[in-house]
Amino acid sequence: MRLLLVASFVLAASGFLVAQPAGAAVACGRISFAPFGTTRQLSYSVEVVAGRVSRTTARRVMRTFMTRDTYPRGWFCARGHASQGQKWAARCGTAAGADVKAFGPLRR
Protein backbone atom coordinates (compact mmCIF):
# COMPACT_ATOMS: atom_id res chain seq x y z
CA MET A 1 0.00 0.00 0.00
CA ARG A 2 2.83 2.37 0.88
CA LEU A 3 4.53 1.70 -2.47
CA LEU A 4 1.27 2.44 -4.27
CA LEU A 5 0.97 5.81 -2.50
CA VAL A 6 4.59 6.70 -3.27
CA ALA A 7 4.15 5.70 -6.92
CA SER A 8 1.00 7.79 -7.27
CA PHE A 9 2.75 10.79 -5.75
CA VAL A 10 5.73 10.38 -8.09
CA LEU A 11 3.42 10.10 -11.09
CA ALA A 12 1.42 13.17 -10.08
CA ALA A 13 4.50 15.24 -9.22
CA SER A 14 6.39 14.34 -12.39
CA GLY A 15 4.11 16.57 -14.44
CA PHE A 16 4.86 19.56 -12.23
CA LEU A 17 8.59 19.10 -11.70
CA VAL A 18 9.75 18.42 -15.25
CA ALA A 19 8.88 20.98 -17.89
CA GLN A 20 8.74 19.40 -21.35
CA PRO A 21 9.44 21.52 -24.40
CA ALA A 22 6.53 21.90 -26.81
CA GLY A 23 6.19 18.90 -29.11
CA ALA A 24 8.39 16.63 -26.98
CA ALA A 25 5.85 13.79 -26.91
CA VAL A 26 6.60 10.77 -29.09
CA ALA A 27 3.61 9.27 -30.90
CA CYS A 28 3.50 5.48 -30.54
CA GLY A 29 0.51 4.67 -32.70
CA ARG A 30 -2.86 3.27 -31.69
CA ILE A 31 -4.17 0.45 -29.58
CA SER A 32 -7.56 -1.13 -30.27
CA PHE A 33 -9.61 -3.47 -28.13
CA ALA A 34 -13.17 -4.41 -27.24
CA PRO A 35 -13.96 -3.47 -23.62
CA PHE A 36 -15.32 -6.24 -21.40
CA GLY A 37 -18.94 -7.01 -22.16
CA THR A 38 -19.03 -5.34 -25.58
CA THR A 39 -18.15 -6.24 -29.13
CA ARG A 40 -17.47 -2.66 -30.24
CA GLN A 41 -13.79 -1.93 -30.88
CA LEU A 42 -12.36 1.23 -29.29
CA SER A 43 -9.11 2.86 -30.39
CA TYR A 44 -6.78 5.09 -28.38
CA SER A 45 -3.65 6.94 -29.44
CA VAL A 46 -0.58 6.36 -27.24
CA GLU A 47 2.24 8.85 -26.61
CA VAL A 48 5.44 8.76 -24.58
CA VAL A 49 5.52 12.12 -22.81
CA ALA A 50 8.71 11.65 -20.79
CA GLY A 51 11.42 9.07 -20.14
CA ARG A 52 13.04 6.41 -22.24
CA VAL A 53 10.36 3.92 -23.19
CA SER A 54 10.12 2.01 -26.46
CA ARG A 55 6.96 2.49 -28.49
CA THR A 56 6.21 -1.23 -28.24
CA THR A 57 6.47 -1.17 -24.44
CA ALA A 58 4.29 1.93 -24.23
CA ARG A 59 1.53 0.29 -26.27
CA ARG A 60 1.84 -3.01 -24.35
CA VAL A 61 1.58 -1.36 -20.93
CA MET A 62 -1.34 0.80 -22.00
CA ARG A 63 -3.24 -2.08 -23.65
CA THR A 64 -2.75 -4.26 -20.54
CA PHE A 65 -4.07 -1.53 -18.27
CA MET A 66 -7.00 -0.60 -20.47
CA THR A 67 -8.17 -4.20 -21.04
CA ARG A 68 -7.35 -5.93 -17.74
CA ASP A 69 -7.24 -3.04 -15.26
CA THR A 70 -3.79 -4.19 -14.12
CA TYR A 71 -0.30 -2.94 -14.91
CA PRO A 72 3.15 -4.56 -15.12
CA ARG A 73 5.56 -4.60 -12.19
CA GLY A 74 7.35 -1.27 -11.87
CA TRP A 75 4.54 0.70 -13.49
CA PHE A 76 1.64 2.64 -11.99
CA CYS A 77 -1.41 3.54 -14.07
CA ALA A 78 -4.50 5.69 -13.55
CA ARG A 79 -7.56 6.68 -15.55
CA GLY A 80 -8.14 10.30 -16.56
CA HIS A 81 -11.21 12.26 -15.48
CA ALA A 82 -12.64 15.08 -17.58
CA SER A 83 -14.15 16.62 -14.43
CA GLN A 84 -10.57 17.27 -13.25
CA GLY A 85 -9.50 18.78 -16.56
CA GLN A 86 -7.52 15.73 -17.67
CA LYS A 87 -7.60 15.30 -21.44
CA TRP A 88 -6.01 11.83 -21.35
CA ALA A 89 -7.97 8.60 -20.95
CA ALA A 90 -5.19 6.76 -19.10
CA ARG A 91 -1.69 7.52 -17.88
CA CYS A 92 1.10 5.16 -16.83
CA GLY A 93 4.46 5.95 -15.32
CA THR A 94 7.47 4.55 -13.51
CA ALA A 95 9.56 5.76 -10.60
CA ALA A 96 12.41 6.23 -13.10
CA GLY A 97 10.46 9.03 -14.81
CA ALA A 98 8.71 7.33 -17.73
CA ASP A 99 5.32 8.87 -18.54
CA VAL A 100 2.95 7.37 -21.13
CA LYS A 101 -0.53 8.66 -21.97
CA ALA A 102 -3.47 7.31 -23.98
CA PHE A 103 -5.95 9.67 -25.60
CA GLY A 104 -9.38 8.72 -26.87
CA PRO A 105 -11.51 6.93 -27.66
CA LEU A 106 -10.82 7.97 -31.24
CA ARG A 107 -13.34 8.14 -34.03
CA ARG A 108 -12.75 5.79 -36.90
Task: Please name the defining characteristics of this protein.
single chain; 108 residues; alpha+beta; five-stranded antiparallel β-sheet; globular; disordered N terminus
Account of the protein in words:
- The protein is α+β, with helices and mostly antiparallel strands and 108 residues long.
- It has one domain (2-19, 26-103).
- Helix content is 28%, strand content 30%.
- It contains 2 helices and 5 strands, in the order H-E-E-H-E-E-E.
- The chain has a 5-stranded antiparallel sheet, with helices on both faces.
- A hairpin with a 4-residue loop joins strand 4 (90-94) and strand 5 (99-103).
- Residues 3-7 and 13-20 have low confidence and may be disordered.
Major sheet: size, sense and barrel closure? 5 strands, antiparallel
Number of domains: 1
Adjacency order of strands in the biggest sheet: 1-2-5-4-3
The helix count comes to 2
Q: How many β strands by DSSP?
A: 5
In short:
This protein is α+β, with helices and mostly antiparallel strands.
Topology readout:
Layout (H helix, E strand, L loop, with lengths): L1 H16 L8 E8 L8 E9 L4 H14 L6 E5 L10 E5 L4 E5 L5
Antiparallel strand pairs: 1-2, 2-5, 3-4, 4-5
